[in-house]
Amino acid sequence: MLSGHVDRLVIDQTGLKGFYNFALEWTADDSDPAGTSLLQALQEQLGLKLETIKRTAPVVVIDHMEQKPTDN
Fold this sequence. Notes:
single chain; 2 helices; 72 residues
Protein backbone atom coordinates (compact mmCIF):
# COMPACT_ATOMS: atom_id res chain seq x y z
CA MET A 1 0.00 0.00 0.00
CA LEU A 2 2.92 2.36 0.58
CA SER A 3 4.10 2.16 -3.03
CA GLY A 4 1.18 4.29 -4.21
CA HIS A 5 2.02 7.02 -1.72
CA VAL A 6 5.76 7.24 -2.34
CA ASP A 7 5.73 6.54 -6.12
CA ARG A 8 8.26 3.73 -5.74
CA LEU A 9 8.18 -0.01 -5.26
CA VAL A 10 8.18 -0.79 -1.51
CA ILE A 11 9.46 -4.21 -0.46
CA ASP A 12 8.76 -5.47 3.07
CA GLN A 13 12.02 -6.53 4.68
CA THR A 14 10.87 -6.22 8.31
CA GLY A 15 10.59 -9.96 8.87
CA LEU A 16 7.29 -9.37 10.69
CA LYS A 17 4.66 -12.04 10.06
CA GLY A 18 0.88 -11.71 10.23
CA PHE A 19 -1.47 -8.76 10.03
CA TYR A 20 -1.46 -5.72 12.31
CA ASN A 21 -4.01 -3.00 13.05
CA PHE A 22 -2.58 0.47 13.61
CA ALA A 23 -3.46 4.11 13.15
CA LEU A 24 -0.96 6.30 11.33
CA GLU A 25 -1.41 10.06 11.40
CA TRP A 26 0.29 12.12 8.71
CA THR A 27 -0.38 15.11 6.48
CA ALA A 28 -1.05 14.14 2.88
CA ASP A 29 -0.72 17.75 1.70
CA ASP A 30 2.98 18.57 1.20
CA SER A 31 2.17 22.28 1.14
CA ASP A 32 1.66 22.29 4.92
CA PRO A 33 5.17 22.76 6.41
CA ALA A 34 3.87 22.15 9.95
CA GLY A 35 2.40 18.78 9.00
CA THR A 36 3.94 15.36 9.46
CA SER A 37 5.16 13.66 6.29
CA LEU A 38 4.44 10.01 5.61
CA LEU A 39 8.12 9.10 6.06
CA GLN A 40 8.27 10.96 9.41
CA ALA A 41 5.06 9.28 10.60
CA LEU A 42 6.34 5.81 9.71
CA GLN A 43 9.54 6.34 11.67
CA GLU A 44 8.17 8.27 14.66
CA GLN A 45 4.88 6.41 15.16
CA LEU A 46 5.73 2.87 14.03
CA GLY A 47 9.52 2.72 14.25
CA LEU A 48 9.80 1.84 10.56
CA LYS A 49 12.20 3.46 8.12
CA LEU A 50 12.08 3.42 4.33
CA GLU A 51 15.50 3.07 2.74
CA THR A 52 16.32 3.44 -0.93
CA ILE A 53 18.20 0.48 -2.38
CA LYS A 54 18.85 -0.71 -5.90
CA ARG A 55 17.23 -4.03 -6.62
CA THR A 56 15.93 -5.89 -9.63
CA ALA A 57 12.18 -6.17 -9.94
CA PRO A 58 10.04 -8.23 -12.31
CA VAL A 59 8.70 -6.26 -15.26
CA VAL A 60 6.09 -7.23 -17.84
CA VAL A 61 6.50 -5.67 -21.28
CA ILE A 62 3.70 -5.89 -23.85
CA ASP A 63 5.07 -5.14 -27.27
CA HIS A 64 2.02 -6.02 -29.39
CA MET A 65 -1.75 -6.48 -28.97
CA GLU A 66 -4.54 -7.43 -31.32
CA GLN A 67 -8.25 -7.31 -30.74
CA LYS A 68 -9.83 -10.73 -30.75
CA PRO A 69 -12.62 -11.01 -33.37
CA THR A 70 -16.13 -11.51 -31.95
CA ASP A 71 -18.71 -14.01 -33.19
CA ASN A 72 -21.13 -11.23 -34.14
